[in-house]
Amino acid sequence: MGMNRTAKGIVLVPSLLLGGSFLAAAVWGEAAGDNRNLALGLGGALLGAGLLAQLFPEQQPETGEDERP
Q: How many domains does one find in the chain?
């Protein structure tokens, strides 16, 4: 069973949103302080994971050649 387009979207959207939030908090948030490097690392990892998931090949659609009447 391969990965389909819907599964890729389910992985992409939350990881991009969370990654962007972590990066924004690291860059603009004054409360980040000592955790700035952690926020940058998590944001980059989430963005990378979401984009990397898009590179996996999709499963070819199954044809009904075996099912003849």
A: 1
Whether the full predicted model's pTM is greater than 0.85, yes or no, is no
Rounded CA-CA distance 62/69 in Å is 17
- Assigned domain for 67 exists: no
Residue 10 counted as domain residue: yes
Containing structural domain, residue 33: 5-53
- Per-residue pLDDT tens listing for the chain (69 residues): 556 778 788 888 999 999 999 999 888 877 778 889 999 999 999 999 998 888 877 767 666 665 555
CA nearest neighbour of 27 among 17, 36, 16, 14? 36
Q: Is 29 within the bounds of a domain? A: yes
